[in-house]
Amino acid sequence: MTETLEHPITDREALPVELVDDAGHAIGTCPVSQAHQAPGQLHRAFSVLLFDDTGRVLLQQRAAVKTRFPSQWANTCCGHPAPGEPVAAAAAVRLAEEMGLATTLAEVGVYRYHAEDATTGRVEFEWDHVLVGLLSAGSPHPNPDEVADYAWIQPEALRDAMADDPDAYTPWLAGVLEVAERALTER
């Protein structure tokens, strides 16, 4: 008897991440869980921001079961490419897995950050490739194992909301938004 799963069960914490140096060059690998133990190890990641035709950005509220920054609002999706995997390819796969969406993505910059999650004790220390895309058709179909909710919001309103209630948002969201907007205005 052969079984197929629509969403294969994966222990994402056991997957390898690519460790990088201060210039973003690969220097090794370790499991996701190890990279996120205090004090954290600098590793390659990506953050996707999708915009619509009116300039709104698509956010997701991270599922409560996430090991880092659960239930906080974040960019459209994020993750880690496998060692040696092209970032845009990994981001496209993760966008489909988390939000049920597909669109062309373009890398627009890197945001490096370090953030400690006081709730879980985990650490984010990432060389974060920022990718943007336009969603002109279709709507999100989030995976409930990954995403609690989603919302479209104008960037100006998002900045105001983050200033009013910073604990509701992931610590990387403001920096990722800044990299994306700077790149989009320079086009």
UniProtKB/TrEMBL annotation:
GO terms for biological process: dimethylallyl diphosphate biosynthetic process; isopentenyl diphosphate biosynthetic process. Keywords: Cytoplasm, Isomerase, Isoprene biosynthesis, Magnesium, Manganese, Metal-binding. Residues 41-175 form the Nudix hydrolase domain. One of its GO terms (molecular function) is metal ion binding. It catalyses: isopentenyl diphosphate = dimethylallyl diphosphate. Coiled coil: none annotated. Mn(2+) binds at H36, H43, H80, E124, E126. Binds 1 Mg(2+) ion per subunit. The magnesium ion binds only when substrate is bound. The active site is at C78, E126. Pfam families: NUDIX. Gene3D superfamilies: Nucleoside Triphosphate Pyrophosphohydrolase (3.90.79.10). The keyword Cell division does not apply. Its main location: cytoplasm. Pathway: Isoprenoid biosynthesis; dimethylallyl diphosphate biosynthesis; dimethylallyl diphosphate from isopentenyl diphosphate: step 1/1. SUPFAM superfamilies: Nudix (SSF55811). Its EC number is 5.3.3.2. InterPro entries: Idi_bact, IsopentenylPP_isomerase_typ1, NUDIX_hydrolase-like_dom_sf, NUDIX_hydrolase_dom. Mg(2+) binds at E98. Its cofactor is Mg(2+); Mn(2+). PANTHER family: ISOPENTENYL-DIPHOSPHATE DELTA-ISOMERASE. Catalyzes the 1,3-allylic rearrangement of the homoallylic substrate isopentenyl (IPP) to its highly electrophilic allylic isomer, dimethylallyl diphosphate (DMAPP). Belongs to the IPP isomerase type 1 family. This is Isopentenyl-diphosphate Delta-isomerase. It comes from Nocardia ninae NBRC 108245. The gene is idi.
